[in-house]
């Protein structure tokens, strides 16, 4: 098991908490078509917060639960910085959690 799993799992919970606190968490999933996007961050069918909730968090949970290899790199903070450029204060906690996630993924095993 990758030693980063525990820290990453903690940050995934922090990301979810931030989405909920900001009111960006949704009870109803997007359509199957929207979730099937092959574009990076599903930019053609989902808002970034939807992508975090419905694509990113479930994929990372699966990786951790099944002890699969972690990605070699993550640039999720750069996307968040662009998306939330007009809401820097409101998104500060979420972006901090995403920054730490990027750092953890980038650490050499």
Automatic annotation (TrEMBL):
This is Pseudouridine synthase. PANTHER family: CYTOPLASMIC PROTEIN (PTHR39586:SF1), CYTOPLASMIC PROTEIN-RELATED (PTHR39586). Coiled coil: none annotated. It comes from Pseudomonas rhizosphaerae. Pfam families: DUF446. It comes from the Bacteria. GO terms for biological process: single-species biofilm formation. Signal peptide: none annotated. Residues 8-104 form the YqcC-like domain.
